[in-house]
Amino acid sequence: MKKLKTFELNRLTVDEFKSTRKTPVVVVLDNIRSHNNVGSAFRTSDAFALEYIYLCGITAKPPHREIHKTALGATESVDWKYFKDTLDAIDELKESGYKIVGVEQVDISKSLLDFKPGKNEKYALVFGNEVTGVDQKVLEQCDEIVEIPQFGTKHSLNVSVSIGIVVWDVFSKIKNAGV
Questions:
Q1: What is the pTM assigned to this prediction?
Q2: Tell me: the pLDDT tens digits for 20-51?
Q3: Where are the alpha helices (DSSP H) in the chain?
Q4: Helices 35-47/159-176 angle, 10° precision
Q5: What is the pLDDT of residues 70-95, one digit of tens each?
Q6: Which residue of 69, 94, 132, 141 is 20 to 30 Å from 9, comparing CA positions?
Q7: Is 100:142 a contact under the CB 8 Å cutoff?
Q8: Which residues contact 30 (CB under 8 A, 6 or more apart)?
Q9: 21-146+157-176: what fold?
Q10: Closest CA to 30 of 108, 76, 70, 89
Q11: CA dihedral 120, 95, 102, 44 (to 10 degrees)
């Protein structure tokens, strides 16, 4: 076993990334307070070649040194848009044929374990504020709500951790299904 050096990782250039086939997923950040969480969302979106990140409300936008610190350059590779109101982002995504999936703990949420992406479907995954979660009005516009099963005492994960878990799960289900 040999740990790989950076140059051995076969990383895409930004131009190669821009032209590569993307996973049909958009991450929507609904009023995320932490610049570090935003940077982490960019880095995760780059790792799984997602189509876009939609930054909404108070969510910080690049360029910003705190975002850059955790994004490690992913703000250059991953396309993004800003919306003053998350509902405007949801409307645009619906008009473009995306299924809107909120990630939140609600009375009708489905376990992420039971979420099955459909063939030829595009998904927008909505993640909410670190304290208040996804806004109720946004949840009402979602096609589905999923939650990450948790078994401890907190039933709370940092939003950047939630993004990593949900994006990996959806990505792997899409790839394994040949979607």
A1: 0.96
A2: 999 999 999 999 999 999 999 999 999 999 99
A3: 14-19, 35-47, 65-71, 74-77, 86-95, 136-139, 159-176
A4: 10
A5: 999 999 999 999 999 999 999 999 99
A6: 69
A7: yes
A8: 56, 57, 59, 86, 126, 127, 128, 129, 134, 135, 138
A9: Alpha/beta knot (3.40.1280)
A10: 89
A11: 70
Mean pLDDT across 1-5: 94
Report the mean per-residue pLDDT for the chain: 96
Distance from CA of residue 164 to its chain's centroid? 8
Are 122 and 60 contacting, i.e. CB atoms less than 8 angstroms apart? no
Give which of 126, 94, 132 is closest to 109, Cα–Cα: 126
Question: Would you kindly state where each structural domain of the chain is located, as residue ranges?
Answer: 21-146+157-176
40: helix, strand or coil: helix
**CA 98 to chain centroid:** 14
Work out the burial of residue 125: count CB atoms within 10 Å of its CB; fewer than 13 is exposed, 13-18 middle, 19 or more buried. buried
The conformation of residue 18, written as its DSSP 8-state character, comes to H
